[in-house]
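Message: I would love a firmer grasp of how sequence relates to backbone shape in proteins. Thank you; the sequence and its tokens follow:
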Amino acid sequence: MNTAINEQQLSKTAYVYVRQSTLAQVRHHQESTERQYALKEKALQLGWHDSTVQILDRDLGKSGAQITGREDFKTLVAEVSMGQVGAVFALEVSRLARSNLDWHRLLELCALTDTLVIDEDGCYNPADFNDGLLLGLKGTMAQAELHLLRGRLLGGKLNKARKGELRFPLPVGLCYGEEGQVVLDPDEEVRGAVALVFRLFRETGTAFAVMQEFGKSTLRFPKRSYGGAWDGKLIWGQLSHSRVLNILKNPSYAGMYVFGRYQYRRQISPTGEVHKTPCAVPMADWRVSLQEHHEGYISWDEYLRNQERLAKNRTNGEEMMLSGPAREGLALLQGLLVCGHCGRALTVRYTGNGGVYPCYLCTWLKREGRATKCCMNFRCDLLDSAIGTEVLRALQPAELKLALVALEELEARDQTVCRQWQMRLERAEYEAELAERRYQEVDPSQRLVAATLERRWNAALLQLEELKQQAAEFQRQHARVATPEQKAKVLALAKDLPKLWHAATTQAKDRKRMLRLLIKDITVEKPAPKQLSVHIRWQGNATTDLTIQIPPNIADRMRYPAEVVDRVRDMAQHLPDVDIADKLNQQGHTSITGKPYTTSIIQWIRFRYGIPPPVLKKPEELTVQQVAELFQVSDHVVYYWIQNAIVRARKLNAGSPYWITLGEMDHQKLRDWVRNSHQIDSAVLTHPEGGAL
């Protein structure tokens, strides 16, 4: 028995830790695994009982560079920390941990709990200074060894990649030839599907639109399987948005050989574990990039344009970029406008009932707290109509040529989609014929095999028939083959491009795409409250300047001009409201709404601009108060006289006061009335407006 081992340590559990870095090592290097399992015999020889020796082998096939994913190592650390382990057996230090952090943490726990570390070279007590120093040195050498091995492997890979000879899984549509060179996939349907992705992106400008076009045409997209029983086989399915983005961002389709597009970065999870996450590397930092390495589907210039377009399509960046994707909104110049005050992109807001009234506005300075109001805010239709007119004026010389190109592009796209359907049918027919040949060639005595092959043949035939029906339905609903008569109509319509531009069937998205082909950006300034200064920069860097007057708002439009107000003020000095309205109508004037003047309109003008009512009282006329003072009665008695026609009175309108005219006979009659009426009956005398006297 080793003298370094005491009875207390022998009474505790001895753990044998078994680990291999990869599953390939477990499968092909079994000698190392056998040597690690043999450590149990060494533990028995050193004095541990068979029941106290446990083997931890759940970490086979996992790297020791970090603790993440190594459940048995976590178990070992936990048992050691609780003082339940007498010794830890490992073939060498690198089997326990390749990381100094994990290794020294285990050593510190072993030193605190008096746990031994035993490897092929001997028995060590981490609590002893010399043994701890030696174990620390072994751990450092193990980590250095891992660094050296990684450096050698990566150096060899990098050297081979610089020559363009390092092989790695290729994206669908590309494969390795007989001599190891990268070639286009020999399957014509696969090549057609990949080429259609780039063509649709060239036409639509967004990855999401490419996915939608595949869905509308019910087209499939291939995916090549790597590893396992399906290694190298094609799996057909629906095209997703993420796959479109991966295809557009992959430089291999542009004929470039690239190494180092992604690199792993370590991140600490909330639980404290270290994870490796692949992150994209900027193009300038790619370690190897060889142009024209192999045949591609697009050119390198088109690849760069695609990346620029994808960057502009982003709406979640730090700053909104100009010329984003053409969307379905009513704002025609969305993504093209630049504020002439702060230099930021103008945004779109939809107001009104249901958001049917779009407007352009710039709120950057206000949002940043550098201003108290927006740089500008105006309706979309004011600028959209003016820009549309300029675009139509610029397109007049090329209308016919554009129509011919558009017609050719439409026919070419339809032919490409139909060709994809045709190749899909050919593949299904081949699979049905192959199933039939296998059934015909089977030995009739093998009834079970023949029955299985017959079911497969029937399933292939049913799938072929269903596919033919889908293809016929697609041809009937979606395929567009232009006849000579249709071409003539299109060319005739092209001669009247404004009619096509303003047609209700032309979508706003299509108009925006046309604008992006012609206009690079539009700078808008607001030199005056009701004026816009517009500077158009075309794609050829030519410029056009426009000045647009903003119409007044509803409050300004409903405000009467100063001339009308002055005319009403002059006439109100000697005419009542009804006469003023009649006179204005006789002179041919109309109100601000285009209707004839009425008494209520004149009254509103007087109220709005503070014009007093006309003073038309005659010198001989008296007011109600004057008559009441003259005869020493109340105002109610005078109103009673007016109501019962005892005195003559008049008023201009419902809100005007009464003016009373009294003659000599009236004076005498009223005096007699007051003298003979010692007590006025309150039940009889009532106020003409309804109040009791």
Observations:
- The mean pLDDT is 80.
- Residues 506 and 669 are 86 Å apart (CA to CA).
- The two ends are 133 Å apart (CA to CA).
